[in-house]
Amino acid sequence: MVVSRASAKPPTAPTRSLTQKTVRSYRALCRRTCISARHCFAARQTLIKGGTTCALTMETVNHTAEVFRVVEETGFRATVGKCMMDKGEGVPSLLHENTEDSIRESLDLLEAWHGREDGRIRYCFAPRFAVSCTSDLLRQVARLACERGVMVHSHASENETECDLVERDTGMRNVTYLDSLGLTGEHVALAHCIHVDTAELETLKRTHTNVVHCPSSNLKLGSGIAPITRTALTARLATIASTCSPKCARPHYCKKSCAAPKHFRLGWFCAWPRSRAPARWDLVTNWEVLKPANEPT
Question: Which CATH number fits domain 28-124+242-248: 3.20.20.140, 3.40.50.720, 3.60.130.10, 3.90.280.10?
Answer without folding.
Answer: 3.20.20.140
